[in-house]
Design brief:
Pfam families: Cu-oxidase_4
Keywords: Copper, Hydrolase, Metal-binding, Transferase, Zinc
CATH architecture: 4-Layer Sandwich
Radius of gyration: 17 Å
InterPro entries: Cu_polyphenol_OxRdtase (IPR003730), Cu_polyphenol_OxRdtase_sf (IPR038371), Cytotoxic_necrot_fac-like_cat (IPR011324)
Protein name: Purine nucleoside phosphorylase
GO molecular function: copper ion binding; hydrolase activity; S-methyl-5-thioadenosine phosphorylase activity
Oligomer: single chain
Distance between the termini: 24 Å
Shape: globular
Length: 236
């Protein structure tokens, strides 16, 4: 069920893998996608199983992700168009979804603020992670830790040379080369550079989604399959 799971004080966080759900092939098993042709009943059961294991009885807030830089305050039961989400509410799980993009979870336990961001190529270049950090600081966060989960690595994320140059002009750290020698992007490296400029300690627990069969990958598997990144601040 989890690629990585940890607790840091009252902060619980996790990045999922593809196992432990009920979706049939080719979505097998723990598909958390919003869109796609997987059975809606299966996706609903996958969410129920995950939330019951991660934070039994806790509500969750998520997003309709659009590869931008908008950050919103969490609202349970709503699904706004955004790619960053923050809250000061205790025992509310924040959930973002990825399938090659970079999931980032953030927390300041002492200030009581947590956040999550979905950073693809466009979102990273637009600054969704710095925007999420800024929103958390506006809510009182002063000592933020970030965790970066699985994404498609620079060895595998081939892009046209013009696209590479466009993104690298904004974030030079993202420029990379595939293992077969063609232009690529390392979105995670770009995110880590942004976090460093914001003086954020980052814990990199990423693996390449395309290279890891236990993870979903848009480039390898196609659309309609998503991993989850979850974080909450417990009341006690």
């Amino acid at each position: 069920m989890y690629s990585f799971r940890a607790s840091a004080g009252l902060v619980d966080l996790a990045f999922t893998d593809r196992y432990g759900g009920v979706s049939a092939a080719p979505y097998a098993e723990l598909n958390l996608a919003v869109a796609g042709s997987d059975e809606e009943t299966a996706k609903a059961e996958n969410h129920r199983l995950l939330l019951a294991d991660f934070a039994d009885g806790a509500p969750y807030a998520d997003l309709y992700q659009v590869h931008g830089d908008v950050v919103v305050d969490a609202r349970c039961g709503a699904r706004p168009e955004a790619d960053g989400i923050v809250t000061t509410e205790r025992d509310l799980v924040l959930l973002v979804r990825t399938a090659d993009c970079v999931p980032v979870l953030l927390a300041d336990e002492a200030a009581g603020v947590v956040g999550a961001a979905h950073a693809g190529r466009r979102g990273m270049a637009a600054g969704v992670v710095p925007q999420t950090v800024a929103r958390m600081r506006a809510l009182g966060a002063t000592s933020i830790t970030a965790w970066m989960g699985p994404y498609v690595c620079g060895r595998c994320y081939e892009v046209p040379e013009a696209m590479q140059a466009e993104v690298a002009d904004v974030e030079p750290a993202a420029k990379a080369t595939t293992s077969w020698g063609t232009p690529s992007l390392d979105v995670g490296a770009g995110v880590l550079a942004q976090l460093a400029r914001d003086d954020i300690d980052a814990v990199d627990v990423s693996r390449c989604t395309r290279e890891s069969d236990d993870l979903y990958s848009f480039r390898r598997d196609g659309a309609g399959m998503s991993l989850g990144a979850l974080i909450r601040l417990r009341a006690a």
